[in-house]
Specification:
single chain, 290 residues, alpha+beta, eight-stranded mixed sheet, three-stranded antiparallel sheet, globular
């Protein structure tokens, strides 16, 4: 059975959980209009309960997406500066090259590796929103891995091993590990490495979750090779199929996810050199992980 929230404007319906790892779809909403308090509360609770919220059938301009996102907190700028300062915080995730044509020769490939947004910042992202503007005929999925489930199912010996440990998260390392264009000296100075707990506590639910991913370079107070091997072992455990929700995009989807308890990655399961994939992205600033 669907849960139904009826307002004076329309019936906004929330479906059942889409997978054991998370995901829930909401239909009947019109996000071009001011967000009703009851609808905001529904979205926030759904995010806590299901971690990934899909709001179907939205047609949003960049300004409308920016306005909607501000309902949930302070917005972040992208790490790359946009030519139009009004939309520096609304930017495209796309496979289009500088000539506007599809390409599989991308300068930035980090989206295709498991990560949580902006963990190379001292204050990482809380939630991210992607709005489907143009989609390939098939494929172009996004995967989400539930880090709370992953932590919960670790052997007790591993939980003890990583208790209190901190990993270094680095923009420079992330670029290197993903095969992207290397970070410039200016970028290295602007975004120096930071460290976060390997196990963070969700500030609203109190649940523990692994906080790892492609931005994590090594572990403090541990030989680099040993730390990287441990991080790789944790990532392999955390991204097993039973912990992953795969989102198959539909036109007009607005997908919202909780970076505090998820990893995600794009999947290159489409003809990148032929098919256009354009999604508009906004990000809400979070808090220091503890």
């Amino acid at each position: 059975m669907d849960d139904v929230l009826v307002s004076s404007r329309a019936a906004v319906r929330m479906g059942s959980r889409l997978s054991p790892a998370g995901g829930v779809a909401i239909s009947g909403a019109d996000l071009t209009r001011p967000l009703a308090p009851a609808h905001k509360a529904l979205i926030l609770q759904a995010l806590l309960d299901h971690h990934v919220v899909i709001i179907r059938d939205q047609t949003l301009s960049a300004e409308q997406q920016r306005t909607f996102t501000t309902n949930f907190g302070d917005l972040e700028e992208h790490v790359a500066r946009h030519h139009d300062v009004r939309y520096a915080i609304v930017h495209s995730v796309t496979n289009l090259g500088r000539d506007g044509k599809p390409t599989d020769a991308l300068n930035t490939r980090g989206n295709y590796f498991w990560h949580t947004d902006k963990s190379y910042h001292e204050v990482p992202s809380l939630m991210t929103m992607l709005h489907a503007v143009e989609l390939p005929n098939q494929g172009g999925d996004t995967q989400f891995a539930n880090m709370s489930l992953a932590y919960r199912t670790l052997p007790e010996a591993m939980k003890r091993r990583i208790d209190g440990r901190r990993a270094v998260h680095s923009w420079e390392w992330s670029r290197l590990a993903s095969g992207s264009t290397p970070a410039t000296e200016a970028e290295k100075q602007e975004r120096p490495p930071v460290d976060h707990p390997i196990v963070r506590t969700h500030p609203e639910t109190g649940e523990k979750a692994l906080y790892i991913g492609n931005h994590a370079s090594h572990i403090l107070a541990m030989p680099e090779a040993e730390g990287r091997a441990l991080l790789a072992e944790l990532l392999a455990h955390a991204t097993q199929p039973e912990f992953v929700y795969i989102h198959h995009w539909r036109p007009g989807d607005l997908v919202i996810w909780d970076n505090r308890c998820l990893l995600h990655r794009a999947v290159a399961n489409y003809e990148m050199a032929k098919q256009r994939r354009v999604l508009n992205r906004t990000v809400v600033r979070g808090t220091v992980p503890v």
